[in-house]
């Protein structure tokens, strides 16, 4: 079985490739990279892996011929460009490459919770556009709608190591939110790529992906305290301050979109109310938050 990952360089792409190469099914894996210097050495040395140069933003560079299944990812971009249009463009390019190949039986798109909404969700609207484009790209289409990544606390690990505190935009601090590790994302995408839809499941099929349980900002604080063995302070960024906070991190339009997405997660927000929920049972990963926090902290120089 031949599986192609487009693009392969995001952390979620790496996790999926690693899970595929470790799977007993032993599929052949092709990763499409804009920059081939970003291919991990352990991938290069695996005889079942092939790195190919290509750019998800340039359709003429995409070749998925011979692939049985394709994983499509909308990569993050923080330069101020229109991320919603980018999500649509990349999806159109991947769809064109899939249909040109003629061999692809299954397309899996790494999406987000809230992708069923076209407004009020900030940057998640890019996933809405991508899903709308990819829904008929292959005979079987699967949307893996991931919740908040545990690895989003990477910047918190940095300030905890340097100064013993971290900022949290998830308030109130005891508010519970579903989170999932990138490792569990890779495992879920691998299962979706290798296995056909169950009998009776429609295409496209969407499911939400969570971690073992919901967590709070206080759980993050406790997790870091367990790692370093001393007290950690959490500095909450309350809802009215979100736009100013993100303006210090991103270009203006992107800052507004991140603030809107963040607000949607919080109590009373669109994703918290979820008036049009994803049907079916969510899949839960097994990686605990404290394990991810430990890895993030230890990865700091």
UniProtKB/TrEMBL annotation:
It comes from the Eukaryota. Pfam families: NAD_binding_10 (PF13460). Residues 8-193 form the NAD(P)-binding domain. InterPro entries: Ergot_Alk_Oxidoreductase, NAD(P)-bd_dom, NAD(P)-bd_dom_sf. This is NAD(P)-binding domain-containing protein. It comes from Podospora didyma.
